[in-house]
Specification:
303 residues, mainly alpha, two-stranded antiparallel ribbon, 10 helices, 11% strand, globular
Length: 303
């Protein structure tokens, strides 16, 4: 297959992306690597009048050709970790299955098409956290707006989402809704660590340099998830994912796995605090509403 064509970014776009990278990466070497990838190295050129000048040439940013084989060390780490932790995640999965069945009628699991390793599409498994036949266009439009803005990638349910079933906010904040993706790991669709797999409609909106994100196996957790996650912008997420791809190793994966549990605990506590705050605010609003009274013919007052 032919190599992916080079992409030429405007100077304003390059400066914007480099500024975003500086906010994410404290390391000067990492910043310089992204400047080299997005910047324009200068080369000598001779004009018609014989004068030698310096001109900028955009670096080509390519996406590797489709492939299905993960790195051997990564596949071995995934299978070993999943099998060793089986006594922990299997009872937890059964508990969540019972919780969803009790709180909502309908299927327990939810499947959705995602873009995986080297652009290969697959069906991802999740615990269902929305009512059956809930519309998803709202989420797609919301994420599309985040891709074009510099706003934090706050989840819709952080501000209240009526599409969610009881207990869904806890499942999402704790990451338990993604527990069935262990089966995706066993099937070879995903890895434990890597960029989160995106929707096909999202991938179609990616710029050429952003498509490098699929050059690593998608993961349950990753560098972005343990370094700000929904507090970061879309471009910052991209830079973190590309940074992980450049630094991917067994030691970086083990470090990210160790950080994941404390991060999930912290996010769960924050979600519970937000939920409690909304309930208190809702009660105060109800109490402050004026009570209308109607007098009956016999003098009885109805509220």
């Amino acid at each position: 297959m032919a190599a992916a064509p080079a992409v030429v970014l405007s100077n304003d776009r390059k400066n914007f992306l480099i500024d975003s990278a500086i906010k994410v990466f404290p390391s000067r070497n990492s910043q310089d690597r992204f400047r080299g990838r997005l910047g324009a190295p200068e080369v000598d050129s001779r004009s018609d009048n014989g004068k030698i000048s310096r001109r900028a040439v955009a670096n080509p940013v390519t996406v590797d050709e489709p492939a299905t084989t993960f790195p051997v060390w990564k596949r071995a780490l995934d299978l070993t970790f999943v099998l060793l932790t089986l006594p922990f995640w299997l009872p937890l999965m059964l508990f969540v299955m019972g919780m969803i069945r009790f709180n909502s009628s309908g299927p327990i699991f939810y499947r959705q098409e995602r873009v995986g390793y080297r652009r290969r599409h697959f069906m991802i498994f999740k615990f269902r956290t929305m009512h059956v036949n809930a519309e998803t266009r709202t989420h797609e439009d919301y994420f599309a707006s985040l891709m074009q803005s510099e706003s934090p990638m706050t989840k819709l349910d952080a501000a209240g989402d009526t599409r969610l079933i009881p207990g869904a906010r806890f499942l999402r904040a704790s990451g338990l809704d993604e527990l069935p993706q262990i089966f995706n790991v066993l099937r070879g669709d995903m890895s434990l660590v890597g960029p989160r797999p995106c929707l096909p409609c999202e991938f179609n909106r990616y710029e050429q340099w952003q498509q490098r994100r699929v050059n690593a196996p998608p993961g349950l957790t990753g560098h972005w998830q343990v370094n700000g996650k929904n507090k970061t912008t879309f471009n910052q997420m991209m830079f973190m994912d590309l940074f992980y791809i450049d630094k991917m190793s067994i030691w970086s994966d083990l470090g990210i796995i160790c950080k994941t549990i404390p991060v999930l605990v912290s996010e769960t506590i924050e979600a519970l605090k937000r939920y409690k705050s909304r309930r208190i605010s809702h009660r105060v609003t109800n109490v402050s509403e004026p009570i209308q009274t109607i007098s009956g013919n016999n003098g009885t007052i109805y509220k």
